[in-house]
Amino acid sequence: MDATREELLISVLADKLAYDRHVAVGAASPIPGAAALLAKAEKQDAGGRMQVTIIHSRRHNPFTDGSRELFDCAARGLIDSFFLGGVQIDGRANINLVGVGDYPDLKKRFPGSFGSALMYYVVPKVILFREEHSPRTLVEKVDFISAPGASPPNVHRPGGPQHLVTNRCVMDFDNERARFELRSCHPGETVDTIREATGFHFDVGVDVEETPLPSAERLTRIREHIAPQILTFYPEFASRIWGLAA
Amino acid sequence: MSQVDHMSVEDIADAVPDGALLGVPADYSGVPMAVTRALVARGAKDLRLYCLPLTTMQGDMLIGAGCVADIEAAAVTMGEYGLAPCFSRAFQGGTISMQDSTCPALHAQLQAVEKGVPFIPLRGLIGSDIDHHRPDWRKIQNPYDDQEDPIVVLPARPLDITVFHAPKADRNGNVFIGRQRELATLTHASKEVYVTVEEVVDTDFFATEATAAGALPAFYISGIARAEKGAWPLGLTDQYDPDGPAIREYVAAAKTEAGFSEYLAAQGIVARPAA
After folding, report:
1. Interatomic CA distance for residues B149 and B135, integer angstroms
2. How close A61 gets to chain B, by Cα (Å)?
3. Least CB-CB distance to A66: which of B77, B98, B182?
4. Pairing of the two strands B47-52 and B21-25
5. Chain A: residue whose CA lies nearest to B177
6. Distance in Å, alpha carbon of A58 to nearest chain B alpha carbon
7. d(CA B110, CA B181)
């Protein structure tokens, strides 16, 4: 069995969540959603527990006090991991979900910052996930800071970015230096191809590996156990990747 | 005897005055699309939308029809159907102003209204360009900490009117919202609240805790109108799913101004004289 790029990403993200107690997934995030459900299934196999909260799913959304409950939980430190993306992400992990150009005179307007201007500060492990890895998305400096990657020491900030996962590689973020370090390249990529595709400067780890492919067992679980669950709340994605129909 | 006025969808559109600060629910919680079409038909002007915390087709259609002067939201998007076409055009063309916000701030500013307090603090925000463009938000020192601890405080934002759609009202005018509690927040923070419902049922939601826990009491509600499929083409929890093909048709048509006008005409949304 050959893993698709999407299945590779699901597997990579699931590894980052293995020890979490509560993982939350925001809007329009089928790959993070699948990764969280995979991590939960594997943790349960090992006798552990995990709460996976997927805002766009009815079954996986446990909140009864409105969507503000997600932010209240996060602000109290009750959510371990969350995913954020961006129209642009820069080398200091600043994220821009608002648009391209000189705000408010934007050349191209995107939806908006959603909950990032709180979640990025208070969730201990924010995983930046952006499939498109190009100089257009990974830029030297974002045009608008929806939320900053790092804050001065006097600002209350128990959380922040820890990883950046794209369709080319995995990077870790060093909060003190406010700088990314390349950790692994997906199959077919090298340090040089990543450099060429990245608009910001980053460090290269001493032991950069090839991103591991999902094991056959994990791939079977993704296709047989996770995909049918994803179908119930991301039908278009499940149909495109696994050919499933509601 | 019902505690609230029963009215028509058009009556509700007439009750929303031009220039009102209007509470707008998120796509997952009771979007009043029937009233939205009636607002377009009425030719509503200069509405200021306060989205809790985002809007999809409701905001986009009101913007496309020229009903909106200003919008405050964490996002305007058609979600999995793509960018919001009329919003993008209006924002890039400078025909509407927007106060970019973030979901928890939009919740918090209404929670301040609920409590009757002038402002509310929120973590995060410091160093975000959202905050830099919000002169109405202030940064203060946490008065309970001897160490330096800056925190942003947000003013209460009382809403003029909220309109939403819900599955049902009971014979006393209580409205069932289930766990869509954003609708309660909007209701508590609004001077006037109008609701459309799929049906009015001859029961009392406060007779048992199971229904009382998901109900809004009639004393908050100014008026109720029956509107079958009142959230269409968006969905309503437990009642019907979003109508994907109909939403796609809107997004495709609204990509141009001419296409948007044709869409309105094809939907039978035509200007009517003011009541």
Report:
1. 20
2. 11
3. B182
4. parallel
5. A66
6. 9
7. 13
Residue numbers in B near A68 (CB within 8 A) = 103-104, 107-108, 111, 181-182, 185
Is the complex ipTM higher than 0.90?
Answer: yes
Closest chain A residue by Cα to residue B181: A66
pTM higher than the cut 0.90:
yes
Both tokens of residue A120?
A: 């990025």
- Alpha-carbon distance of B129 to A190, in angstroms, equals 35
Contacts of B50 in chain A (CB under 8 A): none
Q: Is the four-CA dihedral A64, A71, B166, B250 of positive or negative sign?
A: negative
CB contact under 8 A, A145 and B80: no
Contact A117 B53 (CB under 8 A): no
**In 3D, which of A109, A89, A86 has the Cα closest to residue A97?**
A86
Collect all residues with Cβ–Cβ distance below 8 Å to B261 and sequence separation of at least 6.
none
Q: Residue A28 and residue B80: Cβ atoms within 8 Å?
A: yes
Count of Cβ atoms closer than 10 Å to residue A57 Cβ: 17
Residues 6 or more apart from B95 whose CB is under 8 A from it? Answer: none
Q: Write out chain A's pLDDT in tens, 246 residues.
A: 689 999 999 999 999 999 999 999 987 789 999 999 999 999 999 999 999 999 888 889 999 999 999 999 999 999 999 999 999 999 999 999 999 999 999 999 999 999 999 999 999 999 999 999 999 999 999 999 999 999 999 999 999 999 999 999 999 999 999 999 999 999 999 999 999 999 999 999 899 999 999 999 999 999 999 999 999 888 888 989 999 886
Distance from CA of A46 to the nearest CA of B (A): 33
